[in-house]
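ok so I'm stuck.
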Amino acid sequence: MPASLSGRLVVAISSRALFDFEAENELFEGTDDRAYMALQIDRMSEPAKPGVAFSLVRKLLAFNTPEQPRVEVVILSRNDPASGLRVFRSAQHYGLPIERGVFTRGASPWRYLRPLGAHLFLSANEADVRSALEAGVPAARVLPHAARAVDAHPHEVRIAFDGDAVLFSDEAEQVFQHDGLHAFHEHEVALADQPLPDGPFKPLLQALQVLQQRSPDQAMRVRTALVTARSAPAHERAIRTLMNWRIDVDEAMFLGGLPKGPFLREFEPDFFFDDQTGHVENAAPHVPAGHVAAGVTNR
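replied:
not stuck anymore, here's the structure
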């Protein structure tokens, strides 16, 4: 019987998102890739330092047991195959059971997300992220300079999501951008009983809930938070939408425009997703963060 990833949460991740290859990447982007390849091969026996999404990947993989593989992490990288050897060796060094990888030597790898059935794609390359989102795959551009996750919650995968244009569509955000805050509130109050259309990251939130439901006896658990600039009275439609989807979140923060960074610092997520670069940059000094290039603010 052929191998299958059916029934698993599948995360595709670039080598720069998983490991800190920023020094090497300066060679990759500054000249042709031969100097980059030579440096990676020269450092083959030197494990790379953890990158911005390392904690997220390590904790998700901890849901697996020998009897029940629940999460699959696949390296999907613009690296060349020879440089990919260092990626696999670094994963082995840290005890990450990553077995699959696709290395495309500079070409965009996003098309391989479809045969993988990926629920999430993390990359430092904005063009690849945009292509993935257009193909319907939840994807975010990681900020390599963002803070690394703290070690305070070893048995929880903590993930924070923005609402509009991330979990939900950008329908309400379009009203805000075009007509202002007052019109936005009027629109959301009038449609409070009508669920918001799906956003690009709804499938990931669903997959995380399924992962939790299928792992009731595991030491690991998933903890999620909605962190949004919405405030009352616009909060109700967001909550009712999640109820309609039959998806639970553990925490909800309706911040009414307050900076998100300090609140995320207290939640201590392994990753935070937002569609607005200002919010992502505000969060990055405190937590691992990624930009979701979706919705009206990114057109």
